[in-house]
Design a protein that fits this description.
The complex is a heterodimer of chains A (278) and B (288).
Chain A: E1 24-35, E2 38-49, E3 53-57, H1 64-72, E4 78-83, E5 94-97, H2 111-119, H3 130-142, H4 158-170, E6 176-180, H5 188-205, E7 208-213, H6 216-222, E8 225-230, E9 232-237, H7 239-242, H8 245-252, H9 264-267
Parallel strand pairs in A: 3-7, 3-8, 5-6, 6-7
Antiparallel strand pairs in A: 1-2, 1-4, 8-9
Helix pairs in contact in A: 2-3, 3-4
Chain B: H1 5-14, H2 23-48, H3 52-71, H4 76-97, H5 102-123, H6 125-136, H7 144-173, H8 175-180, H9 185-207, H10 212-226, H11 230-253, H12 261-275, H13 277-287
Helix pairs in contact in B: 1-2, 2-7, 2-9, 2-10, 2-11, 3-4, 3-5, 3-6, 3-9, 3-10, 4-5, 4-9, 6-9, 7-9, 10-11, 10-12, 11-12
Classes of the chains: A alpha/beta (278), B mainly alpha (288).
Chain lengths: 278, 288
């Protein structure tokens, strides 16, 4: 792959993104990141299609989260990251679910307050308005966390906190929902249920979902588009094609080459249940 | 200048103790009633943002503030807040644009303002006596002009707390998440630092450099033990701070006690703090 040239539209470095904005939500155009001499991302050029679930897959240290940070505008990089406006012409709203929320768990703060702090201007010490309360309750029910409203945020389990963070992201009414390692920190079954919940929500609300994961099983069963990353883009496209043994070997190293994962295993007729967590 | 005597007379009438009939006591009471809610509310955010050390650094800029004021013949009531705000904004700016951890940046500024203060004061021995007052604070000498300044600050402060409390809480939880979710984190950080610097400097006059941080964090820490939600933590902190301030002033004026006011206030709020562990222990017992 020519690094300065997009695989999809053949766009050259410095050109305006020529992807059709109707079908493309985000363009990474020759994005490089260097941390104190270490090249974390090397000329990453890739697209994220509108709608669907794009998984950014790669081993630890592949620069997946770094790529996400360039998308969120949190780190400086060369090249360009373009977030397309919505079909009706306004800037895309972003909802973000971080991998681990580093916060002070001893802080007295209820789940209801946690949601209200993002949507209500009136200070929490003057109470939460009934509108905001209703909206927060609806959001919590939507993510299957209706029972958590009165709990303390610091006392939630990893899976519970993840749902509450998802509700907080949904409060933005996002066109773009970005999740960092949603399966990390919860057990295998929990991760599966969470991804199914996201699939249902996506069908209902039609946002573009971008997910970073090192879990190949998760990517294979939930992605509609995959970007395989290891410092640079190894491959991108339909996950059944992209996540083939040859590409996986290039991304993850030799032992992954023979791995069969998730639904892909059926296409090759073997009975393996997959490598799961790489 | 507006006449404060009606307000002072009301305070004298509401607290019909003999000691409260003196003008300086009424002024001190009004000063504390204006100051205590601000330090309490700020304290809640200071402990949530872990900025106790920041407030220490600002309070130590008081000496340099007085000395610079003397050098440029500016009244310390202006030179101290100006330097305090400049130091606060400097800490935030450097913290945002360097790889150093925030406590390192604060430590460097702490050292610089303290050294600057000592260097300037050492040139002029007549200043040394003034600085003594700021070390321990003296609410009993508060003047009408100080009270008006405090009142103005309270108005500004209330507006900020009403408009920004929830957003600051968002930033306390996680600044990156807040920023992605369209909170202008940098703007809130600067305004918060400037306002905290002002509250700290104004508290220095009342409480002294040594006890300012205690005035911020002891009521807030107590409130954190007692409250189960963020809204109630705010009110607990305000209640504890105001009751300690009023109680401290009255006790310190009592014939048989006669302690320094600032220290007495902190000791009362510390008693509150110890008491706050009772419900914590009871909750734990219940959970068992």
């Amino acid at each position: 792959m020519e690094p300065a040239e997009c695989t999809d539209c053949g766009q050259k470095r410095g050109d305006l993104c020529r992807h059709d904005p109707k079908t493309t939500a985000i363009c990474f155009d020759d994005v490089s990141v260097n941390f104190g001499g270490v090249q974390v991302l090397d000329s990453v050029t890739a697209r994220i299609p509108r709608g669907g679930c794009t998984c950014i897959v790669g081993p630890n240290g592949a620069g997946k989260t770094t790529l996400l940070m360039t998308l969120l505008g949190k780190i400086s990089h060369s090249g360009a990251v373009r977030i397309g406006s919505t079909p009706d012409g306004r800037a895309a709203r972003v909802g973000y679910v971080p991998q681990r929320l580093a916060f002070d768990r001893g802080m007295p703060l209820t789940v209801m307050e946690f949601l209200a702090m993002g949507s209500q201007r009136r200070p929490l010490w003057l109470g939460i308005s009934s509108d905001i309360r209703e909206r927060a309750t609806r959001l919590l029910e939507m993510v299957g966390a209706g029972a958590l409203a009165r709990r303390r945020v610091g006392a939630l389990s990893g899976g519970e906190l993840q749902r509450v963070l998802l509700a907080l992201a949904f409060q933005q009414d996002p066109d773009l929902l970005i999740l960092d390692e949603p399966a990390a920190g919860v057990d295998f079954r929990g991760g599966q249920i969470f991804c199914e919940l996201l699939e249902n929500l996506r069908a209902e609300h039609g946002f573009t979902q971008v997910m970073v994961t090192h879990d190949l099983g998760l990517a294979a069963s939930h992605a509609t588009y995959a970007i395989l990353l290891n410092g640079r883009v190894i491959a991108e496209g339909n996950p059944t094609v992209t996540l083939n043994p040859e590409n996986l070997t290039r991304a993850f190293g030799t032992h992954m080459g023979g791995a069969v994962i998730g639904p892909l295993s059926h296409s090759c007729g073997c009975e393996g249940t997959g490598a799961g967590n790489a | 200048m507006p006449d404060l005597s009606p307000i002072l007379a009301v305070i004298g009438a509401l607290i019909p103790l003999e000691c409260m009939q003196a003008g300086f006591m009424q002024r001190a009471m009004l000063g504390l009633l204006l100051l205590a809610p601000m330090t309490a509310a700020m304290g809640v955010q200071v402990i949530n943002l872990r900025m106790a050390f920041f407030s220490d650094a600002i309070s130590h800029s008081a000496f340099a503030g007085i000395a610079l004021g003397a050098l440029f013949s500016v009244h310390p009531h202006w030179s101290m807040p100006l330097l305090g705000v400049a130091v606060g904004i400097g800490i935030v700016a450097i913290g945002r644009h360097s790889m150093l951890s925030s406590d390192t940046v604060i430590g460097v500024f702490f050292a610089a303002v303290t050294a600057g203060g000592i260097a300037l004061v050492s040139r002029d021995p007549s200043l040394a006596r003034d600085t003594q007052i700021f070390l321990y604070g003296d609410i009993l000498t508060i003047a009408d002009v100080d009270l008006l300044q405090l009142g103005g600050l309270l108005l500004l402060f209330s507006a900020f707390q009403i408009l920004a409390f929830n957003r600051i809480l968002y930033i306390c939880i996680n600044p990156d998440l807040a920023e992605v979710h369209r909170v202008k984190v940098w703007a809130y950080q600067y305004v918060f630092a400037a306002l905290l610097a002002l509250v700290v400097i104004f508290s220095v006059w009342a409480m002294g450099v040594l006890l300012v941080t205690a005035m911020l964090i002891v009521p807030a820490a107590t409130a954190r033990n007692l409250a189960r939600s963020s809204g109630t933590m705010f009110w607990w902190a305000v209640g504890i701070s105001v009751s300690s301030a009023v109680g401290g002033l009255l006790l310190s004026a009592h014939q048989s006690i006669r302690t320094a006011t600032g220290a007495t206030i902190i000791l009362i709020s510390f008693t509150w703090f110890l008491v706050s562990f009772v419900p914590v222990a009871l909750r734990k017992e219940k959970a068992r």
